[in-house]
């Protein structure tokens, strides 16, 4: 090789290789310090895309597991509330059985009916006030119950006076019941509507908020009010919104459209007016354990007993549905946790640095860096030999 001082080719080669070694050493140090094989898109563009996709799957699945566990918590709250409703209904059965016997007086039935009314009010409170994370557990979409009418204003008592001459007409199932006030009270209207002869199958009572409720007990439905005057004491009548199905929808996803699903568990609407399950509908709203005389009181108590028994069966069925929903959500959590574990392993295989290999690379590139610096020094020394020719 000719001696030249214009370009030091060995030095250039040593510089180039030293730069490559420096880059490799820097990349190795990045991997060791971060624990990740991919620190920039330049390290592995395809691997980065796959790893980020897997990480998105893992993040969504982790939150889905939390969603499912929250759903289990809400359903357990519903189940606990319904357990208390069953306890109340069992007490109501005791009261109805006692009221149905001939050894109880009318006044004593009135006392039993007061506790029965309190039980219905407590069921209403449980249905309306049971919440989870600030949302009502048993609330749902509502529809008008055409079997009932409720006075929408006022707070009535049995002794409330009705306006003389006011006529109250109720139609249902092809029947018509009329009552004209004449020095009458709300109690007189209740007795008139609850009498099998004059009421023709209607049932009336004052609910927990002091409004008059009129219900068709014959199954004719579509109770309507078309009186000449509503009277200031009763207010306007309307069909109450007492129906509905409160469904808890739990969203599960792995961040993709194909991996998304929803588990819906219906807990139903809960009130004394609505203790339904499937096609089995029952209401305790119009039930009473008392009457104008012994015969009427006993008959009412027996009717109420049948409704209470059906309500107990319906609540048990609802709790069965809730239990099935809890089991399903818990199974979903198990599957999601398994997915998360396997996807994490897959992501780790792509993204994580092989520490043993990187330590070996660091040793190699450290030595190459030292030898490269030494080689560069030797290459620079080679041109000094030209001076010896000029001596």
Main sheet attributes: strand count, strand direction, barrel closure: 4 strands, antiparallel
Computed Rg: 41 Å
From the N-terminal CA to the C-terminal CA, the straight-line distance is 21 Å
CATH superfamily of the largest domain: f41 fragment of flagellin, N-terminal domain
Q: What is the total tally of β strands?
A: 11
Strand content: 5-15%
In which order are the strands of the major sheet placed? 6-7-3-9
User: Would you state the CATH class of the largest domain?
Assistant: Mainly Alpha
CATH topology of the largest domain: f41 fragment of flagellin, N-terminal domain
Shape descriptor: rod-shaped
Produce a short descriptive summary.
Helix content is 53%, strand content 12%. By secondary structure, the chain is α+β, with helices and mostly antiparallel strands. The protein has 2 domains: 55-143 and 242-343, Up-down Bundle (f41 fragment of flagellin, N-terminal domain), CATH 1.20.1330.10; 150-238.
Looking at this protein, list some descriptive labels.
391 residues, alpha+beta, f41 fragment of flagellin, N-terminal domain, 2 domains, four-stranded antiparallel beta sheet, 8 helices, 11 strands, 53% helix
Structure overview:
The structure is a single chain. This protein is an alpha+beta fold. The chain folds into two domains: 55-143 and 242-343, f41 fragment of flagellin, N-terminal domain (Up-down Bundle), CATH 1.20.1330; 150-238. It has eight helices and eleven strands. The protein has helices spanning 9-34, 45-99, 106-129, 186-194, 196-199, 294-351, 355-382, 386-389; strands at residues 131-132, 135-136, 148-151, 167-172, 175-180, 202-206, 212-216, 224-225, 237-238, 247-252, 261-266. The strands form four sheets. Strands 6-7-3-9 form a four-stranded antiparallel sheet. Strands 5-4-8 form a three-stranded antiparallel sheet, with helices on one face. Strands 1-2 form a two-stranded antiparallel sheet. β6 and β7 (212-216) form a beta hairpin.
